[in-house]
Amino acid sequence: MANANSRFVEVSCQLCSCKSKIRLDQYRRKNETWTCRSCTTKGRPNARKGTGVINDPDLARTRNSFYKAQYRCKTGHGGYYKDVEFKFKHLQELIDEIGVRPKNTTLDRINNSGHYESGNVRWATIDEQVRNRKSNIFVEYNGEKMCLSDAARISGMDRNALKRRLETGCPPEFLFTDGKWFSKTQKFFPA
Q1: How far is it, in rounded angstroms, from Cα 48 to Cα 54?
Q2: The model scores a pTM over 0.70
């Protein structure tokens, strides 16, 4: 009886030089050449892969955003979406309106008081969505209207200090000036 190990031969891959043991009859059938499984499948298109949503990451991202927005509107999302309607019936309608979802973006309503409908949706980054909240405070800084957080970052002032000045009635001309604002007397003393 032949030894069980004598039926196997140690071979090395032609492409990556990795070593493995395969059966001798398989090695002979392949004309004494061998490539490992990872080198064999590398670069070869998968015959079973189709063109549907599952196989296209961009389309999958778009579909996920579509269904998540639909779910938020359906459940009310803790009361935040109780009056918001999702008016797109099919995923293709959304794709026709704003295209396939780019990386690092999510579905956003341009007007937060409106619905998810044609003309009121876009793909926006997290920073764009943060600036699109109802709770944001907008101020004018150097002749440009911007979010209070951005104005504080550009001017180098503390955001909370600027917010307190606004809440206590500080005039816009003193908002970004160094000094002390006294809310009781409504006077500003420059530094």
Answers
A1: 12
A2: no
